[in-house]
Fold this protein.
Amino acid sequence: METAGFIRRTLALIYDSLAVFGIILSLSLFLVWSSGGYGEPGTLISFIQISIIAFSGPLFYSYFWINNNGQTIGMQAWRIRLVSSKELPITLKQSFIRCLVSVLSALFLGLGYLWILINKEKLSWADIATNTKIVKTNQDKS
């Protein structure tokens, strides 16, 4: 299986980020509606809001990677998927470590993602840390 390149992976990430943003927005709107307004800092409502923001992404990715053959909706659109280097199903531990390393990669000015451009095997820091890789599912021209 051919490893997916930087552009395809970035476009899938953007697609998925829009979905995660929609989930955060929907859950936040429901929270404000059901509680009658915004929560003051230090209240249960504000804690729930922070939890929604912090965990929506990791839960979204973990759900799809584990239950959908290693593909999020963005990955399906761009014909790529996450696979374990040992041909085993992706574990919850791998998924959460991957999410954590992805956040760190972004915080370091995207260096963990840009690593794909210089790594011979097109691996990001998250791929290396979790012994996984993102591969093309269909050998087409793009």
Notes: The chain has a mean pLDDT of 92.
